[in-house]
């Protein structure tokens, strides 16, 4: 009976730890999870819902909005004066396919629910594609560890030309635009958040970051802006483009003042709340020269849902920034990735149907065996 006892224990813990729903719940007799939850807050790209299940050859009134989106993030390069028609044409189909590849979706060229749901997700304003080349994929194959062994494929990317801060610039100063702040976050809170975000990067590379009141001469300039604010990258309101920053050695870092910014999700019940430190950590990566990655758990992944805290560098982030600057001599090689969703509106853990169905049986059998 000892072997049966071990099997039952193993089965129990597998079902407990399997905390995510299978992709095909209908195969297990459970209804599928809707792609668009009824209680999800409306965002800047909410109109994309109307494009669900469309494909090449269709005509939709919201298609010009999608074309503008794809142009903004580099997926669609329209000739000057190109008419934003309602046609789902071949150019749009190709853009959809590249987007699906970038985000690990089923590559069909059709706007299925999964693709539209991803398109509606709030995100960083930096491009995913430049001049037809995706910045979310590296074509360098597998990397090599110092001992010559092959390790996982590298996914981190850089801006074109791999810009970085000068080797003679080991300490970068940062300051906040006194004319572009938000009232819901105090300066003390702002300083705490940004000290933490900058330190996460300083822990892994031989650079330091120092606060300064001299905004005009700071290396990195942070501010909150609304709509068209003069940099060619206008913001679009809540739950659209959250922020954007520029590659070295530009130093500009702009956040959308229209967002519901928070420094503590547990103390903020808004369904639209955006964690400031999560966005700051991502944008600092751009300030240092990193592009987007297709690794969903990485800081440099472009999208983030409301009420999500994601602040710890993943291995992909660390390898990328160290490729540009080298390693901090005191870095011990540890990487911790933490992503927390809906910290006050409910637990991120969802018991799987397998657990719900199998656990009672396992416990029942355990009663007789143990």
Largest sheet: 6 strands, mixed
Q: How many DSSP E strands?
A: 14
Radius of gyration: 23 Å
Output the number of helix runs.
8
**Helix/strand order, N-terminal first:** HHHHEEEEEEHEEEEEEHEHEH
Report the CATH topology name of the largest domain: Collagenase (Catalytic Domain)
Based on secondary structure, the structural category is alpha/beta
Order of strands across the main sheet: 1-9-10-8-6-7
By CATH, the architecture of the largest domain is named 3-Layer(aba) Sandwich
Average per-residue pLDDT, rounded, comes to: 82
Shape designation: globular
Instruction: Give the strand content.
Output: 5-15%
Unreliable stretches (pLDDT < 50, length at least 5) are: 11-35, 140-152, 343-370
Helix content: 25-40%
CATH class of the largest domain: Alpha Beta
Task: Give the termini separation.
Answer: 9 Å
Signal peptide: 1-19
Family: Belongs to the peptidase M10A family. Matrix metalloproteinases (MMPs) subfamily.
Motif (Cysteine switch): 122-129
Binding site for Zn(2+) 1: 229, 231, 244, 254
